[in-house]
Design a protein that fits this description.
By secondary structure, this protein is mainly α. It has helices at 3-6, 12-28, 33-40, 45-59, 71-89, 97-104, 109-125, 131-134, 164-167, 170-179, 183-186, 191-202. It is built from 12 helices and no strands. It is elongated and about 60 Å long.
């Protein structure tokens, strides 16, 4: 098997597939936006299940590596997710994608990437991930007493990096994101509570 086959990104196949599935939505809903809103209020359970298991799983595939990518690349994946939402609700493009995503409780692509990175960090700090991830993180210890940060033992050191690729690395981008979320989320007692609190915050 060739190397390019081993590194195939499953997201690439979704563009052609979702384009074919999205076409009937455009042809079959030429009525007013009011009728489209009525249709959108009753999503098909089977389509939601299919999209969640087949489409979103591939959009989330290794998506932590996409942190810091060009905005054009993120926008391309966002168009995929928007198509998937239209397929669930069977509505054409004139319908607001953001409203569809909110109705499905789907985080947009950029925030899904942030969610995955922050989840990795939470697990790393709680000994729930491979040690090679934990080794990338360092707890911040203030050099002076009396600083507000001295009261927060969950902050991480953000390593200095002068290279673009270095800024995108887990050891740099991760601590930046982690330090910017509220303390009550960082100290969540369980993985499930952390995920729930973080998703609410990112919405």
């Amino acid at each position: 098997m060739h190397d390019h086959q081993l590194s195939h990104d499953p997201r690439q196949d979704l563009f052609a597939l979702l384009t074919r599935l999205d076409a009937p939505c455009e042809r079959g809903h030429q009525g007013s936006c009011k009728s489209q809103q009525k249709t959108a209020s009753d999503p098909w359970a089977s389509q939601t299940c299919w999209v969640n298991s087949f489409v979103l799983s591939k959009l989330d595939y290794a998506n932590a590596l996409l942190s810091g990518c060009r905005s054009t690349d993120i926008a391309r994946l966002q168009r995929l997710q928007n198509r998937a939402a239209r397929i669930v609700f069977q509505v054409p493009r004139c319908y607001s994608s953001s409203e569809l995503l909110d109705s499905l409780h789907w985080l947009p692509i950029e925030k899904r990437i942030m969610f995955k990175i922050l989840l990795y960090i939470y697990k790393s700090l709680n000994d729930l991930s491979p040690i090679y991830l934990s080794d990338c993180l360092t707890i911040y210890i203030p050099t002076r007493e009396g600083l507000r940060s001295a009261l927060d033992a969950t902050r991480l050191v953000v390593p200095r990096s002068n290279r673009l690729i270095g800024d995108r690395s887990f050891s740099v981008q991760g601590p930046k994101l982690w330090n910017n979320i509220p303390l009550n989320i960082r100290v969540s007692p369980t993985v499930d509570s952390f995920k729930s609190n973080l998703k609410t915050h990112l919405y």
